[in-house]
Write a structure and sequence with these properties.
- This protein is elongated.
- The chain has a four-stranded antiparallel sheet, with helices on one face.
- It is an alpha+beta fold.
Length: 148
């Protein structure tokens, strides 16, 4: 079995229909002999351009292990599903599902906050030192020519 990342966009649906559509796609992957390792729901996002008069869509990425012969039937089922606007199935060497961000230690957070407070003052001082002092213009004596 090979590793795949299956990303698809569902048209805007109510919460119950959205869960049902995701469950239906997961069942299709399992019926094809695949195993879902991880799931990453991106949520509702604005599309770059309208697709079938839809301006928003629900993005989901499934990290799956599928036999090579099962990819075509899964793609065909996604193509026939009216709720799926777009999909992309890519074979990857290693499945790397996104990790949730680790909480920052309290000491590192206070150091970062202190550095961010000090940064604007340091930048202002550096900018003042870098700009040359402006010279005051010297007055040029006005010369008048009198007619002779």
């Amino acid at each position: 079995m090979s590793n795949y990342e299956l990303t698809y966009i569902l048209r805007p649906l109510e919460e119950a229909k959205l869960d049902a559509a995701n469950a239906r796609i997961a069942a299709q992957v399992k019926n094809a002999g695949g195993e879902i390792v991880a799931r990453n729901d991106w949520g509702r996002r604005r599309l770059a351009f309208p697709i079938h008069k839809n301006h928003d869509g629900y993005y989901t990425t499934l990290y799956v292990m599928l036999p090579g012969t099962a990819v075509r039937p899964v793609e065909r089922a996604l193509k026939l599903n009216d709720d799926v606007l777009r999909f992309l199935c890519v074979r990857v060497d290693k499945l790397t599902p996104p990790q949730p961000p680790a909480p920052a230690p309290a000491a590192a957070a206070t150091e970062t906050a202190a550095a961010m407070e000090a940064a604007p003052a340091a930048q202002a001082a550096e900018a003042a030192a870098a700009t040359p002092a402006t010279e005051t213009p010297t007055e040029v004596p006005a010369t008048t020519t009198e007619g002779s």
